[in-house]
Amino acid sequence: MMASKKNEFILGISCYYHDSSAALLKDGIIVAAAQEERFTRKKHDTSFPINAIKYCLKSQSISINSIEYIGFYEKPFLKFERVLSQHLEMFPKSFKAFVSSMPSWINEKLRVTKTIKKKLKYKGDVLFIEHHLAHAASAFLVSPFKEATIFTTDGVGEWTTTTYGYGKGNDIELMKEIKFPHSVGLLYSTITAYLGFSVNNSEYKVMGLSPYGNMDKNTNPYYKKLKQVVDIKEDGSFRFDMKYFIYHYADRMPSKKLCKLLDGPIRKPESELTQRHKDIAAALQLITEEILTKILNHIHKEIKCDNVVLAGGVALNSVYNGKILRNTSFKKIWIHPDAGDGGTSIGVASYIYHTILGNKRNYIFRDAYLGPKFSTQEIKLFLDKNKIKYSEFKSDGDLIKTTAKMIYDNYVVGWFQLGMEWGPRALGARSILSNPCTSKMKEILNQKVKHREKFRPFAPAVCEDDALKYFECDIPVPEPTDFMLMVYPIKKGWQKKIPAVTHVDGSGRLQTIRRYQNSLYYDLIKEFGKLSEIPIIINTSFNIRGEPIVCTPYDAYKCMMGTGIDYIVMDKFLIKREDNPQDMWDSEKYAKD
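Given the sequence above, the corresponding structure tokens read:
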């Protein structure tokens, strides 16, 4: 065990695969965290998170010399061992993929320590922990539980794809694992690619498409077909028939044999989504849920702890998350808000501070506003410098009443407040808000604002104390709903009254909000409820299809001017798109700072 001291800063880093990120802990408390994509504007950016690191240091007014330890979210040499092994095993089929992957390994992935020290001018220790341990730490060590069952599942770490274990106090023990190439995450990604969507980016689209398909195991033919590919045991352990897969040796995912099994070729992107495609998405969701439920029921019997925490990319499957407490024996649940690889930077930093250094846990992850924030003066300077027309609210009360009325009148409002959210969901800091009671609002947002597929659903945001009136939630309402990680049925009496957030199966991926987390956002929802008699608003991320969520005032203004967003409420300022005509917008002429 290493010695610890006060005012100790630990930096966690995740990079080179997808969703690069950095997180900073001060005496065990997460004080700053962000994904690199928000700064570079490159979605799912894989590069070294230099901008996210600079933000973290700047937020605390420190230099790299103040960092005691830097942690990295996996062990590169162990992962390289797996990559070499799979390519050697499948040679010569794997030769093309092997050759194309080697430059990044030689130039970046095996030189992490040297890169960190060179890019950051860092002279301290760099510590590495295994990938799924970083996931486990991200889920348990910042959760509200003193002890919990831990379940992680994703595409693949070094070798591991699925693991479970137990956490108590500062300690984590991972007990059993499933290894590559057998992976729920890779199965989901393979079908995502087959359906014409991008891997490591659009799995959530397949999840959103699944309710449009046949969700009956007995009558969906593709459920029976996919069961030929996956052998699932009663304890949830599984093995794939690898004759149907090529991801272990090629740079693409669906095989010809899988295409034949699913009755057709890979869908071309942007082409029509047929009922067959929807049924395949439904079958995939059914099989995923079957595997996860069996695993969770098995580990509850084995570990006998009623609390469970989840992480790994598959833990972002909010459709399934809302069923866990109902379909298993667990009583309480917590899921890391950035359950995918981005969240591992928090995991490795927390593991170093609490488990390696042995410091008591003194932090619970209650809200996600850990990214860059901008003062009123900074925002006003940006607006004035760029001659953007705006008005200023006289008070918070004026802001709330005016914004609620705009939403009630069916205007689309960009909402820019507080620090940017950590993780893939907008949670009331970088959000687009609108009226859920208007049936056409879903079409308006998808086509004129988000520029995305028309089947895509929108999330209802509701104050936590109102949630049980409108949604069939678990009781008490689990904290992961605060991070938009749970889908629940909307009560039948309300489905037709909030059509823009009611999915085809009558469910909604709700976000609950507690006033101590974001009082302005909470009060806005309540004020909208006074006008509409339903205190629920649409909350979707402040971005357009293919771009990351906005980070800066520049990003937000640019997004509004390129979409159908009517207004931005930015801190205490109101900006109307019609007052700033499109022909005035030239992004190259606007100051970004």
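Residues 9-142+338-356 form a domain with the Nucleotidyltransferase; domain 5 fold (CATH 3.30.420.40). Try to locate this feature in the token string yourself.
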